[in-house]
Amino acid sequence: MSLVNSFSFDRESVPIRALHYRIMKDSYLTSDEATTLVDQYVKFMTLVAGSNKKGEATSLLRPSPLVLLAWRTHILYSQFYKQFCFQQFGAYVHLPSSLLLLVHDLQDPNILTQVLKEYEHTITSMQAAFGDSLPEACWPAKERFLLDTTTTFFVSPSKQRTVVQFLKTLSSDEALLRLTPEALVSKISKLRTNLSLANEDLTLMVRK
């Protein structure tokens, strides 16, 4: 029986409870919002683990920024993450380096096209595997996905106030969602430059 067909998980297990708590603390989500995110994260991970077992390429599975944040948060709890993987999937699930993007990576048209293609494939795969509608907060439409991807990052404390200004500028400009992907990336890069935010201040994921 496949991992998808036998899907279930213990929300009260120590690894899941630790993740739920950390997400609430770090991301300022409510308990219900964190529960929804954890559910979607585990479902996505089930697809990834299932692909690994079949020997299929997992590079086509690209999580939303929020699901990716949950994945990275879980990995930081290395013992809990390892315990979760072996209990849930019977093997450790590695985070592919191809998911660790910087804002300026998306200025490459080839990378941008591939990222959007992978995300659309993931949405289709999630819906086919689990048969329920995906919560938009966790799985935004393609346009919002791109906006979230270029504004979801880990920031040094010294840049926090500037980044808040950056996010407010973006969130108040609904016209951004009507731009083409290429124009959106260009616009965000200009905003970043105007606020003197360097690439390292806008790192989507911290490379190690």
Secondary-structure map with pairings?
Layout: H1 14-27, H2 31-54, H3 65-76, H4 78-88, H5 109-130, H6 142-149, H7 160-171, H8 181-194
Helix pairs in contact: 1-2, 1-4, 2-3
Description:
It is a single chain. This protein is mainly α. It has one domain (14-202). The chain is 56% helix and 0% strand. The chain has eight helices and no strands. The chain has helices spanning 14-27, 31-54, 65-76, 78-88, 109-130, 142-149, 160-171, 181-194. The radius of gyration is 17 Å and the shape is globular. Residues 153-157 and 200-208 have low confidence and may be disordered.
Radius of gyration: 17 Å
What is the 3D shape? globular
N-to-C CA distance: 36 Å
Can you give the helix content as a percent range?
55-70%
Query: How confident overall, as mean pLDDT?
Result: 75
Task: Report the β-strand fraction as a percent range.
Answer: under 5%
* Number of beta strands: 0
Structural class: mainly alpha
Main beta sheet strand tally, sense and closure: none
Low-confidence stretches: 153-157, 200-208
Tell me the count of domains. 1
Count of DSSP-assigned helices: 8
Order of helices and strands: HHHHHHHH
